[in-house]
Model the fold of this input.
Amino acid sequence: MQGSREGKVRLSTHTFAGMANALTRKEPPHDDQPELMTRAERRRAARKARAAKTWKKVAAGTVAVATLFGGMGVASTALAADRDSYQDTIGNSSFEAARNQYGLTKHMKNGAILHAWMWSFKTITQHMPEIAAAGYTSVQTEPMSKIKEVAANGKKFTENWYYVYQPANTSIGNFVVGTEADLKEMTATAHKYGVRVIVDVVANHFTSDWNAIDPDWQNKEYFHKRTGCDGPNGEINDYSNRYKVTQCHLLGLWDLNTQNQAVADRMQKFLKTAVADGVDGFRYDAAKHVELPTEVFDNKQSNYWNTILKNGSQFQYGEVLQGDSGLDYKAYANMFRDNSSDGGGNTASNYGKTIRAAVGSNNLDVKMVKNIDTGGASEDQLVTWVESHDNYANGDKESTGLTDYQIMMGWAVVGSRRAGAPLYFNRPKGSGGTNPQFAEQSQLGDAGDDMWKNKSVAAVNHFRNAMDGKGENLQNCGDKSCLMIERSTSDGIQNDGVVIANMGGDKSLSGMETTLDDGTYPDEVNGGQLVVSNHKIVSGTAKGGAVSVFYVKGESDPNVSVEAASKEFSSDNVKVTLRAQDADNLKYTTTEGESGSFTDGKVISVGKTLSIGETATVKVTGTAAKDGKKVKKGQALSASVTVKKVEVPKQNLAAQYSTNKVGMGVKKTINFNAGKDASIADWDSSMLIAQGAANDDPRVYRPNSMYEVPIDLYALYGAYDDDNLYLMWEMTNVQDVVDTGDDYPLSQGHLWQTQNLPFHIAIDTKDDSTRIGNNGGLQTGGSLWASNITWGGEQKLNNVVTISTNGSNGPWIYKGDETGLNSKAAYGPAANAATNTKKSNIKFGYGNGILSKDVIGIDGGWGENNGRFIGDMKAENQNKAKWVNFNEKGHNSAQMDDHYEIAIPLEEIGTTADRIASSGIGIELAATFGLSAMDSLPYDLAMNDNADLPDTGSQVNNSFEKSDDDMFSVKMANIGGEEPPVETKSVKIDQSDYSVDLSEGVATKQLTATTDPKGASVSWSSSDKDVATVSPKGVVTPRKAGKATITAKSGTKTSSITVTVTGQLPPDPVKDNTIYAAKPSGWGKMYAYVYTGDGATAVNNAAWPGVEMTAPSATDGCQQTELYKYVVPDNLAKGAKVIFNDGGSQQYPGSREPGLDYDGGIVKWDGSSAALGAVECETTIPVTSVSISGDGVSNGKLSLKSGASVQLTATVSPSNATDRKVTWTSSDSSVANVMGTGVVTAGNKAGTATITATAGGKSASVQVTVTGVPDPYEELDALAKAHASDLADGEYVVSTALKDGLVLEVAGWSKKDGANVDVWTSHGGANQKWKVSHDSKGYVTLSNVNSGKDLEVKGWSTRDGANADVWTSHGGRNQKWVAVRDGSAYKLVSAMSGSLVLDLAGWSTKDGANVQLWTSHDGGSQRWAFRSKEQPRKSATVWYRPSSEQSRVRVQWRVYGNPDSTGGTEMTEACGGWWKATVPSAGSVKTGLSFSYGSATDDNGGKLYDVKGESAAVSGGQAVTDVTPNCAATNKQ
Done:
């Protein structure tokens, strides 16, 4: 249930009348609440609303009946104990055993949902075995709070079912679903079968009947006021106004005050009670009618969602129907996901329309059904369906006529696709299709028909469960009546499958390509089989008029994969999806230089750097997280895809179409009046820049095309002068000669009279510095105004100008950056400080008649039966199409055709007349209707690419073109010159970083930038517009305290400075007689006409329409920043009246009615009420100064010894300042730390620190000097001394212990300070050699032989991951190390911290792996071997005397090096009991010795005898170096 439903809403008078009882509020009206309409008035209002024409999905002045029918639960009387649904199910072995037994998906976000519509809890309990057997992961129930009950209706459906969605209190249980005990029984039974439970919740509103609401909820503070809205009872009509959508009363239902924390707490209590009762998830009815936490209305933010969503459930999703202007669909989806333990999101309502259109016309073309509108959310955040209860049960019967067969076919598509959690709606028994909407063969509380467990439906569910996590491919089989949905993983294992929905005859599949791995796949439904070999189908048949489900269930091997939306593309870029299953260490790289980690489903954009003909490859890698059939745990995995940028396909239109055939426009000032009857006298045919054709509206190809007025652009003209860009376009309507029996256009009026349809003007200023990327899609996802329009191919854009056909909505100018369009307009009809929107000076006019003397187009309409055929505007059909001059057939162009013209200030679109004269300006004009473009100039075949597709199902008699995706790709029309802009080589901002104090007033600063070449175009941007804005000309305006980066961009070059804003702006004083007012929807401007007296005594503030009201500043003293403001002259401040108007035909009060009473003071008008309300202004008193005092503080200085503390006190002036809260900070907490109370404690580091107290944007400081700090390096000095002899001075190659031959080096042979240090395969170069030297304390310095610079820790950092580089020697501790020997290798301990050592990042053994500082962990990445590069070593003579006489002695040695060398030899008996031997290559390095004789070994207790020199003697457990025993029998070697 929601206000703006799928597509164009139509109200049924039957439905509205039948709901009258539900919509009658039985409460005496309050003073501020007008009486509700009578039943008859509501019928009349419904008929009027139904007749109204709209410019978008939702009729202006129309409310969507569907929104009445949501659901809500409220808290049980018992306080619920917290329960974690996910752990209680997936973490429960009994539940898991049941889930696995039925093969249901692990994650609710991936599994099918059975919407057991209007079933009671007991009914669901009784059917639970069948629900599990049919493959439903979850079952969704109705709202369970107490509801209004009309006894006379009993339990029939008709005019009764919607009461279930009108809660009345905060207890569980109603006459449809049953009791709380029934709920507990149902959830326990569900879990027994491995099924989880979703409960529908209405968290937005209560019943409209005040008397039906429980007394403890009858508190006006619990509900929004009924003023400031569209309808007389606070209803919503304008669904583009987020304030009204969220703060007003849906169809008069009592709208909960979601800013009231008490309401939020009570709702959370209900939800937590339900979870404690076993509920696992929630569906939130009318979710878009509850504001997001980030939305601010009436200067308040709401904590509602942040409160109620924290309830312990694992899956939550919102009914957020797509299409409303201003709706942040993605933000809702992320909010539900982020507040659920295992996923959540939104309803994907647009896809339901697509599927119903497809099955309703037997057209399952991949082009039609493939795209799922995600609204910027990810595919696993969607809940999809064929139909919902709103589609089926509402008065417009949007899906009621679908047959069981069509629903089955639709479910075959929706249920088998990878995206989202598909929801199957269970219809009442015997109802729908050719039967009545409610046949009353079952009652509320009963189960519906049996289609939910139909063999084909259940088989699709089984398929979905078995294919969970697999990739997807869609293709048609034979023709458009047959669709294959393949799900597979390329792991070479027969565990894939395909669902086929075939609405035609039997089709042989033999010879078709397939993504399925080789094998034989049985059909669960029809008994056949599919045989696949080498990814081709060898044999198999898709049964006609049936669903076939071929699959083999089996676990997939761990895998990674990558899917491109298209392997060839011509737009800015192409979307690529990264996939992984049971894999870890997931990384991706692109040949464009992008890389990173990813999770399954991540989408990246590829190709933005490519030129035509070039390719880009995306590679994904990972490691298997478990053993598979062919893959072992830990095995490397990889996959890749290559995409290619190709030329934009030539459209080859008929000769009647042209772009810049006449010229490039002219430089000329065009004069015209804004609004109706704008003159085109200043235009002439030399200004024509794009020619279209008449009667090429895509609806003419349909058999019932003349249902609505055409959207038919004919010609586009362009001009410019030093100040403005001028455009004029013609729209033709030749129905007077094509369809003479239809007088609709003449009887109803022209577009600018009856419609409010948007024009979108894409503008290319030829300036790369302001280029918009993402094909002009929104930065937040989706498209501008939900239009489904993007720009690619040959089209580049810097601005999009949007305005409606009658000018009442707009003008708006949208800009952006490389990430896409900013949904907040840069310029609009009025300034808006909240969105940083400036007031636009665009002028727009329109009127009857066109400049063109001929109206050339294609004759005929009403489809192929009347001579029209798809593509008859192409050059290839030039001679077949019926091209005519309609004027020669009697077309009354002066009466039927219209013109529109616009003057756009060049400054607002960021260009100049000189730039246009040299490089030109590109234009693409789109005219829209429904959800997408219907015609364009220059003409683009995107306007006609889906004209052959069937009705959408919700746009009666209308082409599918009204709701498809349109990407413009043809060359834009050009005005001015065609010289390519000169490439910018450099840009530099002439000013440096600066600070500004707001408490001294708003001081703007003009920035300038120097470019090469001189005079190149420069664009300016701010990283934080809330802190500081920057104008297109470089003027910086501070807004609030903080830091903002101001960037100048010219071409692709940038330069930045930082602006620091401090202080707080004093509030603007508000005059005693001030009127604020909210602008009603549809008003472009806002005027106040104030007057006193009558006739000769009348006095007014100005001639009609009065004085234009202005938007208050951001520092408005009454904080009414979202309203308009007017200061009333003192002579009109008593006994006056005021009439608000738009300067045109709209006013309040109405014509010939007296104005609203005004008797002075500060008041506001809410946009609809018949009286002005008082405004309470809270004046903010700014802080002027802060001072600091305390023991020992003198002249702003304080001395402390390490460990000492002192209390500081901050004095804030004036004493009545509004913001007196003091914040304390320290510039260096290691020197002196300060608590929030002002207590300062000296740290263990000597030095000075600045202690600052800040309040209200002002601050004061004290400089604290700390002395008496113990030496922090005492232990490190001792370590250095103890290991001073571990490593000898000399020249070494240093290698990692992880891989022999991978050595430490200075990257790139650099000799610069700051050159990086990494590892590389040894090549003997000087950059891989290091000179080791010791200082007097034993610390080691490593100096690179190539550069002479020392190895150091960059920036003296002591954090894990600090980088290692080289720098000119300065003797600092970041250049000193302790070499600690560890066996045959060394640890290099930083002289700054004993816990940090030199480390090889990520344990990598690849060339170029980085070297860093990291906490010691004894791993191989922190062990380094030193191989000496000195002169060849000398041999040494070793003497040994055993403790007793021996006949044989042997010596073993270990010469320490990289690697260590070992050996042994027999010793020769010398004399006096001494034995001797020669140890090779050991004379200049330390050597470890051990001796053996007989059965004894002397190895110094396992430590070895460490000696060094040309000789050594060992005896009696002691070793002496460089001695020779006094023995005549030997000589010194």
Q: What stands out?
A: Residues 2-81, 953-957, 1528-1533 have pLDDT under 50 and may be disordered. Residues 261-276 form the longest helix (16 residues).
